[in-house]
Structures are given as C-alpha cells and as structure tokens.
Amino acid sequence: MRPGKIYLIPSPISKSDFNQILPYNTKSIISNLDVFFVENIRTTRRFFSKIGIKNIEELHFEVLDKNTSIVDISRMIQMVKNGKHAGIFSEAGCPGIADPGSTIINYAHQSEINIIPLSGPSSIFLALMASGFNGQYFVFHGYLPIEKIARRQKIRDMEHQSKNNNQTQIFMETPYRNMQLVQVLLEYLSGSTQLCIASDITGENEFIRTKSVDIWKKKIPDIHKKPTIFLISYV
Asked: 109: which strand partners?
C-alpha cells in the first residue's frame, strides 16, 4: 500500500475575516482528505463551515498542539503510512511556522511521506512586508522570555544584532501581555530604534505602524488582547 500525503493547509489569520485569499483549490483538497491534524478542532470546524464543507460532523479530527505526545504523533504518522491522506491546520495562518505542526512534518520526512504546502496568509511575513524594514535579512524569535531580567537582556541582544548586522528582528507576545511588552520595549530600546507594531493583521481593526521608540513614547496604541507581531530595526 502506498502511503498517503500530508497537505499543509493555511487558515485565516483574523477570525473576523474568512474571505482572505487562499488557494483556489483549498475546498476541493479538504473534501478529499481522510483525516485532519488540527491545533483547535472547534476553530477548524468553523472554518470548514464558512467555506462550505459538508458533513463536518462525520470528519475525522486529531488534535495536534504543543501538548501532543510523541506516541500520538507516531500514531498519526502511521495513519498516513497506511494510505490515509491528511491535512494539517494551525489555529491561524500557515502550518509549521511558529506552530506545533513542524514536529509531525519532521517525522513525516523521516518516513518519506510527501509534504504538500499550500500558500496562504502568514502574520509574520505580512508584518515584515508592511514594516519597511530589511526583508532580505531577518530573524524570527517567537515569544520573548517572561522573566524580567532575561526579557530585558533579550531585547538588548536583538537591538545589538539589528545594529551590527542590519538584521530585522521579529517577535510576538501572548495577546493579553501585549501592553506590558510595549512598555518594556520603550524602556530598554534606544530612542532612535524603529519599532513596527502590526496588530490584528487582515482584521477589521488592522493596525500597522512603524515609528521610532521616542515617537511611540508619546502615544501607545491599545493592542490589548489583539494578535500582534513586533519588529525592530536599529537606525
């Protein structure tokens, strides 16, 4: 028996807009898959409903998140090796980018399973595109440390990397801690360093602005509980 394939299927970034540009054949591909490895089953069901997928209650879903065990990942891989075609969905955006899907993808490669990525929205790259910063040399740090001293050092290290290498620094925070992060950034970054705040990307209240730290200090936007990407570039 030939193994199945794994499709990496993008989902909308903003929950207020399910009409974002997705591959034209997304619905057709989903309709022909046997199993779905998803970060959040309810979010995925809602997405399927919005794009007109039928018989959603009959579909086979498996949770694939940061708490999924290696045993469960191996079991999912075995499904594909047994001939089932699978789709991987993250909570928002593209699977495998700042997303737990990368682990199962790595195991799939070890089993010589074909991985088929579909194009779609990524808040990280959309923020970089709109920032005005260096798009040829950049690094994504994910979430910064929570501990105060480690976070402060990380911010200074990122600014140092940007200064010495002309390298855009990209990072994010849990939405309910956005405002605290902004305060720390404004406290420890140099006044001339450029900070881009990209919030609610593709949503109704999308906000993307690049300003110097000194300018941001005059007025801080309200991004509390809004999905946000931060970028810095030393000038």
From this structure: none
The CATH number of the domain holding residue 38 is: 3.40.1010.10
Do residue 149 and residue 225 come from a single domain? yes
Residues 53, 28: Cα–Cα separation, whole Å: 9
Query: What tens-digit pLDDT sequence spans the chain (235 residues)?
Result: 789 999 999 888 876 655 555 767 888 899 999 999 999 999 899 888 888 888 898 999 999 998 999 999 999 999 999 999 999 998 888 888 888 888 899 999 999 999 999 988 889 999 999 999 999 999 999 999 999 999 999 999 999 999 999 999 999 999 999 999 999 999 999 999 999 999 999 888 899 999 999 999 999 999 999 999 999 999 7
Q: Are residues 173 and 188 in the same domain?
A: yes
DSSP secondary structure code for residue 204 in this structure: T
Q: Which amino acid is at 223?
A: I
CATH number at residue 211: 3.30.950.10
